[in-house]
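Contributing new records

If you add data, match the layout below exactly. Sequence lines come first and carry their own label; structure lines follow with theirs. Keep one chain per record. Anything else will be rejected by the validation script.
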Amino acid sequence: MKYVLLIHESESARPTTKEAGAAVMDAYRAFSKELFATGRGGDAAPLEPVSTSTCVRVRDKKRAVSDGPFAETKEQLGGYYSVDAKDEAEAIEWAAKIPGAKTGAIEVRRLADMPMPSMDSKVGTASTGTKDYIVLIYDREEEWAKLSEARRTELFAAYGAFTTAIRNEGQFVAGEPLTTAKSAKIVRVRDGKRTVTDGPFAETREQLGGYYRVRAHNLDEAVAIAAKVPSAEIGTIEVRPIMDMAM
């Protein structure tokens, strides 16, 4: 079973010295090496600060773009890993090993069993001047539940067409839909003791429903891609640059 491990930390608590920052990065490199050595690590990326966030909404075919993150919380989404675990317990074990679990919180969400066209195809190759962005999809889950079967089928088809389109353009890097927020587990490690609680990290009107990692020449192009995500018409799409560093 595939899970995504979302790393929520307070940006204000990040290391302020070069030495402390290097120690944190060494810890993340060690974790990444351990995970990917098993062959069960998927996509992973650290994100730029929330000050670089851009939110995109489309209503009545009119695009609205605003600066700042979707959710204002004490802790911010700083990165993610996707893993292939035998069950939730194993996914939680991996989450507890993430260095950010000691200072922040790791949200564990199972990836939805809804493969979309070209999801396993070869990803686009980076060209000169391109940068990777994370496109976070926030929907109101209760609104999805109210949709007719015909409307849901229409939206799923639109997602399939969107995924195929950005794959063909060489803009697709990775992407997955998530199960409902109520299925989330939050993992924290304090003084060597692990705690696990139910529910999503942030209680908001809209919940994180999935993500794409895309390749664009600049923020304007990334925003244009985000505006084409089907859920932009009913929810909010947050665009964040991927931090330029090797994991």
